[in-house]
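Posting for a labmate who doesn't have an account.
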Amino acid sequence: MPKKICDLTTHISPNPLSPRGFPQATLNLCRWQKWAIVIFLVITVAWAVLDYRSELLVLNAALTIFYLLTTLYRMLIIDLSLRKPREMIITPEEMTEPPNGKEWPRYMIILPMYHEAAVLPQLVEGLKKLDYPKDRLEIRLLIEEDDDETMPVARALNLEPPFVIVPIPKSYPRTKPKACNVGIEDGEADLLVIYDAEDQPEPDQLKKAAVAFSKSASNVACIQAKLGYYNSDWNLLTKCFTAEYATWFGLCLPGVDSLHAPIPLGGTSNHFRLDILRQAGGWDEYNVTEDCDLGLRLFENGWRTRILDSTTWEQACPSLPFWVRQRSRWVKGYIQTYLVRTRDFWGLHRRLGFWNSVQFHLLIGGTFVSQLINPFYWLMTMLWLTVRPEGLDYFFPPLIFAMGSFCLFVGNFIFAYTSAIACVRRGVGHLARYGLVMPAYWLMMSLGAWKGFLQLFHKPHHWEKTKHFAETDDGQQQSTT
């Protein structure tokens, strides 16, 4: 039985339909968080009645300072990544023999699936190309038992070892991390990796990860491969999405790694030491961005994550409505992670240490706070540049105006420029010019952020599933799920 995620952040659900024995963290605020919100609202309302202008000035100053610190931190990790690459690079010569000189470690692949019938045959064919000894490999297709679309297709494929179909019992919550926890309850393996249904990992990725673990310190529990998109040229949205991923996995995460800081994992291609993953309690079944939470939780418990120079190719969502749904789930999960991890506020900071605590607030908190406040600052900027309403300058005294201007002009320029650099380094240099439109793309991200934030109040654990698309003969895209 894996240990609880954290005594202050988990409980075993009494729901008889809950998964078997895994701890589950809910979004329920702890007592101090509830009181903090109540006190904040009371003070905010009272202050607004007494002197709303001073209140808005102070709030604007606080948000601007936090935004500036978040911007400077993002610049720091990108600069560190550009100065000295931190990815673990495994050469072909290192993969010619097992890392221990005897045999390759036992590997388990889990693939949570729901309504994925259209992509399942292609997925199976792709996984058959993995360059790893089949007698040391087990590939588990985690399919919901009531998925009448995917299950018949899987059974019709007459799969042979190393493929195994694992039916996931119908239970609450209906989430990807719940399926993953059920999928790892039994079985023997040394290493484990999770892939998504549309993933196309490089054939030698398992061997690279196995060698990387053998070369890593004993406290390395996870190795994160890079993610990229194979449909980057479908439309403007996929081009910008590709540039974003190139920056995040090519510059930001390696920079965080260089600081030995907690790394929020990607949703796929996380390679784990299976025994440590089980000890950590698996994934948070109620968190819709369970990968971010798991990366932080591992770090809290003394484990590290490294970045591997190997790519898993995914499909960038080419449809704006579905892209917003996906983005809303990610941001909602970041907020969930932030709230759950800060329940034991002082205990968290004791475990992380001062500098890592600062990075946690800037990277996790700064990500969703920046996206939520972006539209308001863009609106004020447009008002300032066009009509200049009377009284607006009161809220932007010289120091606050200077900090805001730095974030707006210098920050956006640097991030757009480094997006172009990231595209070149990622091998998609023809997309570098789209760095010019990235500020508009970042503003668009706020749509998903606000949707995810509002969902916290009425659908906190709702999983916004991302649809997959196929390209037709005339170059158009159509849904495959």
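Reply:
Got it, the structure tokens are right above this. The beta strands are 107-113, 137-144, 163-168, 191-194, 200-201, 220-229, 270-273, 304-314, 469-471, 477-479.
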